[in-house]
């Protein structure tokens, strides 16, 4: 491991690319001395993106040694080979597709556990490490985990709504919660997986429904909470944003006015008077970092409704993968600063500029 703080990001997809951009833009504030990213496959279509990351962002390209000539044919010169980058890294962030991160853990990462402070993968890698979402279960770092899985964007959104709407005066007042996730088919950067019409997800869990509620339950279980929640999901043929409908049945009375006040005072929740998904997406594209809002959830204020004083209904937009990016950076800070939460909060502060009060 090098003397300074070196962060290695493996993968340049919908999570990896904006994460490299965020860490590059705030490298000094985040106490990162060296930022390396690994590209597995040399493709001419990726050349503009790679050149931008190297020449404009100042990130260093890592490749597999046997692919050197293939990258040189694309006029790309790597700074370091993968095995050297793994040896140098203080923190390793795996942003590869589902299943690959776990394979990398089995093949590579376990060899570097003594020299590397921490490893993380993204939401689909459920067995990679302890599931984490910023300000939902930061207590997990009290146990100094070596491996962390960053929760998915929809898991962040649902967890934030539960934490802020169902917890009143610090106490869990949830009797039952149900969620419907209306998911985008794919990201605008992707060409695969588009669908021609709405597609329904199966309920894989008898107790929780889809994996979204399973993951939210796991987040809260890590801090000693047992939530009665259930989720369903469907995909629709859009590339904009995920949308979520929620119904929270509470043990005590609440009001729309109270819910609005909660949204106003919580910086990780954005509010919107807009009810059109594409317009909110457009705001993120124009004003966010790499087109991302980093808020955990966007609450659609006109949709908030309270029935019988205890049944909360509403819709929210999930800010693409922005909330997962924010948690990835927070986990990086926990590893770099030896799990010191005060240091994490201090170093995360510059990123508040990408948290929007209203969109």
Polypeptide structure, described:
α5 (100-107) links the parallel β5 and β6 (118-121). This protein is 31% helix and 23% strand. The protein has 359 residues and is of the alpha/beta class. An eight-stranded parallel β-sheet has the order 4-3-2-1-5-6-8-7, sandwiched between helices. The N and C termini lie far apart (42 Å).
Protein topology:
Layout: E1 6-10, H1 16-25, E2 34-38, H2 47-56, E3 60-63, H3 68-73, E4 80-81, H4 82-88, E5 91-94, H5 100-107, E6 118-121, E7 130-132, E8 147-150, H6 153-166, E9 167-168, E10 171-172, E11 174-184, E12 199-200, H7 211-221, E13 229-236, E14 242-250, H8 256-265, E15 269-272, H9 277-287, E16 297-300, E17 305-307, E18 311-318, H10 322-336, H11 341-348
Parallel strand pairs: 1-2, 1-5, 2-3, 3-4, 5-6, 6-8, 7-8, 11-13, 15-16
Antiparallel strand pairs: 9-10, 11-14, 12-13, 14-18, 16-18, 17-18
Helix pairs in contact: 6-7, 10-11
């Amino acid at each position: 491991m090098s003397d300074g703080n070196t962060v290695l990001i493996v993968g340049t997809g919908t999570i990896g690319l904006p994460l490299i951009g965020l860490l590059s833009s705030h490298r000094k504030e985040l106490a990162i001395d060296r930022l390396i990213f690994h590209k597995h496959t040399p493709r001419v279509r990726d050349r503009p993106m790679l050149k931008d990351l190297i020449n404009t962002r100042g990130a260093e390209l890592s490749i597999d040694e046997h692919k050197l000539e293939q990258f040189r044919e694309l006029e790309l010169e790597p700074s370091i080979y993968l095995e050297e980058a793994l040896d140098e890294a203080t923190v390793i962030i795996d942003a590869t597709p589902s299943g690959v991160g776990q394979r990398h853990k089995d093949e590579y990462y376990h060899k570097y556990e003594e020299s590397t402070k921490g490893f993380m993968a993204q939401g689909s890698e459920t067995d990679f490490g302890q599931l984490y979402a910023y300000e939902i279960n930061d207590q997990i770092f009290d146990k100094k985990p070596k491996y962390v899985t960053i929760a998915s964007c929809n898991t962040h959104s649902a967890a934030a709504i539960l934490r802020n709407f169902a917890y009143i005066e610090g106490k869990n007042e949830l009797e039952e919660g149900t969620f419907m996730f209306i998911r985008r088919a794919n990201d605008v950067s992707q060409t695969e997986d588009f669908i021609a019409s709405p597609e329904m997800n199966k309920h894989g869990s008898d107790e929780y429904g889809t994996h979204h509620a399973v993951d939210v339950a796991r987040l809260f279980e890590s801090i000693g909470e047992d939530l009665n929640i259930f989720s369903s999901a469907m995909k629709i043929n859009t590339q904009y944003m995920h949308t979520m409908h929620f119904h929270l049945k509470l043990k005590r009375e609440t009001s729309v006015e109270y819910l609005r006040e909660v949204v106003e005072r919580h910086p990780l929740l954005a509010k919107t008077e807009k009810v059109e998904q594409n317009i909110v997406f457009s705001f993120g594209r124009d004003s966010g970092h790499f087109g991302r809002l980093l808020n955990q959830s966007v609450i659609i204020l006109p949709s908030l409704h309270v029935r019988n004083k205890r049944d909360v209904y509403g819709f929210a937009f999930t800010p693409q993968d922005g909330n997962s990016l924010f948690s990835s950076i927070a986990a990086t800070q926990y590893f770099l600063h030896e799990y010191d939460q005060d240091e994490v909060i201090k170093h995360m502060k510059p990123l508040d500029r990408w948290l929007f009060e209203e969109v």
